């Protein structure tokens, strides 16, 4: 294309410099880089400077966002045009209109750069008008610093921690579980201290480097047994139910062992099981998650396919894939994995709640799927875990201190894709299902979950960085990690003031949270998103979900409905819940919800949905302007503000206290200007008109004239891969 064929903004004349964090260094830069706005498939965009630092890739132009266009949830660390090096997923170069994956040393430099991010943003940069030397420097620099393996202590986490002032305290009522007192307090809170004890045997990591310094075991388990196999084969306490039944986890012995070793280990396990099956302990049920749930490789494969549906290059690609949306969504298997994980959590909850049975979760390391199920069970059964501080404490206990391999699974060093697995992201997707089904039960919002998922890739926090407490401790010792004010401390992600100002933090808190139990059957009905794309898979013709549609003419109205009579085999008949499970499940769902009691997610077919806010927030075509649940929330918040203002007028002496409440809720003026994906979508953003190729419309018309049909069910199984 020529300069005449694109809508351009003249190159900036004035010098624009990046905002650098403490410890952040500018490594390379390129001027006269053209950034595309890929909203409608055109080549519109703006000129600016592309820079790479030891923390991020950033595009700088002289356009300061106006008040109307600035995102409401502005991040103080990562700007709208910033990509942290940890957030880079893949980088492609375009050579003669052909895309090529960029890794390692480059012999030829591309005319266009496409960066796909782990938070699903896609950036397109044109380098045709950039000086050749600058192109070489910036492309080589970006590829090297974001894709090439490096030493752990060279990562920005350490640069920032040694340079930044350590004057923040992010505990914020969050229990960090790095002290013995925290574990004892949790035992006391759950009344588990009668049968379980916090132990100090791993101080100095003399039992295992994989275990935390402190953990909880049954009182009857001796220190000798804990030491014998480096903590393997020992039931570790997670949580105690109100009836005394407990949730435990265990790191399994390796399966491939010689006969004599296997027999010895089996005898050891039998002794442990007998000890904790006798009074005062309840009956014990074991569950080997490695055989009852998908493998980490299956989870990674499913998510890799799933995320491709949302890494959209341009508007035309979006509408082209829209025709096969259901079959593409089902073929990823991601929603089915979420359903299976939630089903397993319900099974465990049934044992604890109804059968008063202890449940022992078993996994090779007890730090992956054990963390997922244990966290979900506690969110479902313990209302404290549905508060913000309670949920954060739970993540600390089970994941950060519990030894989940964030460093390997998030591929922070880019060493190997084999270890990569979105286990924590799977948990957040499952928790989101509960949040959107029972909003009043949670003190936090889906926006909180979304920014929590984004924080995985902001390497100034240690919370989601290391594989274990031992790895963190050993990498913060030594002379090189002392500042003028003493040994440095890593930041914790739970100090939200580091990323957001008070106004933005208000979006993380649910103004509709039910402070006290208010069983109300009418509140169980979930408000459905009416997005252009159907966000769940239909189960049968008698139970279909809301419509999805596409534009044919230049209008913002949905005009057609394409739903399948049955899209593939959505729930395995052999995988149907057993009778006792179905009885427990149906019985609970037939009663009014106690938002401070047990919560069971709805898991049948279309009830499992796509997390719209996280996966569709960067796709303008998937947004409803002035619509979605945010429009309803805006109206309610306006009423709340009006009521509070009247209260102020009625009672002047309490003005200060009440006005504080008023400002704790973001003021959503003029809900017609909001997008359904607010606060991530910008305000006053024009609706994007589809640029569908003529061939696509012809394909649609051939299929028995689908475009002209209204509210009919059409069998789309023929397009299944």
Automatic annotation (TrEMBL):
Transmembrane segments: none annotated. Keywords: Cytoplasm, Sarcoplasmic reticulum. Coiled coil: none annotated. CDD domains: PTP-MTMR12. Residues 177-615 form the Myotubularin phosphatase domain. InterPro entries: MTMR12-like_C, MTMR12_PTP, Myotubularin, Myotubularin-like_Pase_dom, PH-like_dom_sf, Prot-tyrosine_phosphatase-like. PROSITE patterns: PPASE_MYOTUBULARIN. Gene3D superfamilies: Pleckstrin-homology domain (PH domain)/Phosphotyrosine-binding domain (PTB). Signal peptide: none annotated. PANTHER family: MYOTUBULARIN-RELATED (PTHR10807), MYOTUBULARIN-RELATED PROTEIN 12 (PTHR10807:SF37). This is Myotubularin-related protein 12. It comes from Nycticryphes semicollaris. The lineage of its organism: Eukaryota, Metazoa, Chordata, Craniata, Vertebrata. The gene is Mtmr12.
């Amino acid at each position: 294309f020529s300069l005449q064929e694109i809508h351009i903004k003249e190159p900036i004349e004035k010098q624009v410099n990046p905002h650098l964090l403490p410890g952040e260094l500018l490594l390379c830069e390129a001027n006269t880089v053209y950034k595309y706005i890929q909203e409608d498939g055109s080549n519109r965009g703006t000129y600016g400077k592309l820079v790479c630092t030891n923390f991020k890739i950033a595009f700088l132009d002289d356009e300061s966002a106006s008040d109307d266009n600035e995102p409401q949830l502005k991040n103080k660390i990562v700007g709208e045009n910033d990509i942290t090096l940890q957030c880079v997923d893949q980088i492609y170069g375009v050579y003669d209109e052909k895309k090529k994956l960029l890794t390692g040393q480059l012999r030829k430099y591309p005319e266009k750069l496409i960066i796909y991010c782990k938070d699903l943003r896609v950036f397109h940069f044109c380098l045709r008008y950039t000086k050749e030397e600058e192109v070489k420097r910036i492309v080589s620099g970006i590829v090297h610093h974001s894709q090439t393996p490096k030493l752990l202590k060279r990562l920005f986490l350490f640069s920032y921690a040694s340079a930044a002032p350590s004057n923040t305290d992010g505990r914020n009522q969050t229990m960090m579980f790095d002290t013995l007192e925290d574990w004892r307090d949790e035992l006391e809170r759950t009344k588990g201290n009668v049968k379980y004890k916090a132990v100090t045997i791993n101080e100095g990591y003399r039992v295992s480097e994989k275990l935390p310094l402190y953990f909880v075991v049954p009182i009857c388990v001796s220190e000798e047994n804990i030491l014998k196999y480096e903590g393997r084969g020992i039931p570790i306490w997670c949580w105690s139910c109100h009836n005394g039944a407990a949730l435990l986890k265990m790191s399994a012995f390796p399966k491939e062992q010689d006969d004599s070793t296997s027999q010895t280990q089996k005898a050891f396990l039998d002794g442990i099981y007998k000890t904790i099956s006798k009074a005062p302990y309840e009956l014990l049920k074991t569950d080997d998650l490695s055989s009852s749930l998908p493998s980490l490789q299956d989870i990674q494969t499913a998510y890799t396919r799933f995320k491709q549906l949302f890494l959209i290059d341009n508007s035309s690609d979006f509408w082209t894939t829209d025709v096969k949306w259901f079959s593409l969504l089902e073929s990823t298997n991601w929603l089915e994995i979420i359903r299976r994980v939630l089903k397993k959590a319900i099974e465990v909850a049934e044992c604890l709640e109804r059968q008063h049975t202890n449940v022992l979760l078993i996994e090779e390391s007890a730090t992956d799927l054990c963390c997922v199920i244990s966290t979900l069970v506690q969110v479902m059964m313990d209302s404290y875990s549905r508060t913000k501080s309670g949920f954060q404490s739970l993540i600390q206990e089970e994941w950060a201190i519990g030894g989940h391999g964030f460093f390997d699974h998030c591929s922070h060093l880019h060493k190997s894709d084999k270890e990569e697995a979105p286990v924590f992201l799977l948990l957040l997707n499952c928790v989101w299902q509960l949040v959107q089904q029972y909003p009043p039960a949670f003190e936090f919002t889906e926006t909180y979950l979304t920014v929590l998922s984004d924080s995985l890739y902001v390497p100034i926090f240690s919370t989601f960085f290391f594989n274990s407490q031992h790895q963190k401790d050993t990498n913060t010792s030594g002379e090189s990690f002392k500042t003028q004010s003493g040994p440095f401390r890593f930041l914790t992600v739970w100090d939200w003031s580091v990323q957001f100002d008070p106004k933005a933090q208000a979006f993380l808190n649910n103004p509709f949270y039910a402070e006290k139990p208010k069983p109300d059957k009418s509140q169980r009905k979930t408000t459905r998103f009416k997005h252009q794309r159907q966000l769940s898979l239909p189960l049968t013709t008698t139970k279909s979900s809301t419509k999805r549609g596409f534009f044919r003419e230049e209008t913002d109205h949905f005009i057609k409905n394409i739903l399948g009579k049955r899209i593939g085999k959505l729930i395995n008949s052999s995988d149907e819940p057993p009778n006792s499970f179905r009885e427990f499940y149906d019985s609970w769902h037939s009663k009014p919800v106690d938002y401070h009691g047990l919560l069971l997610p709805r898991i049948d077919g279309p009830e499992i949905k796509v997390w719209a806010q996280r996966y569709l927030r960067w796709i303008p075509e998937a947004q409803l302007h002035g619509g979605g649940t945010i429009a309803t929330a805006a109206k309610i918040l306006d009423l709340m503000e009006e009521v509070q203002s009247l209260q102020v007028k009625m009672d002047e002496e309490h003005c200060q206290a009440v006005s504080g409440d008023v400002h704790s809720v973001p003021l959503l003026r003029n809900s017609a200007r909001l997008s359904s994906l607010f606060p991530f979508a910008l305000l006053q953003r024009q609706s994007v008109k589809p640029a569908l190729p003529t061939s696509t419309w012809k394909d649609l018309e051939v299929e028995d004239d689908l475009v002209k049909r209204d509210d009919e069910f059409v069998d789309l199984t023929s397009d299944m891969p």
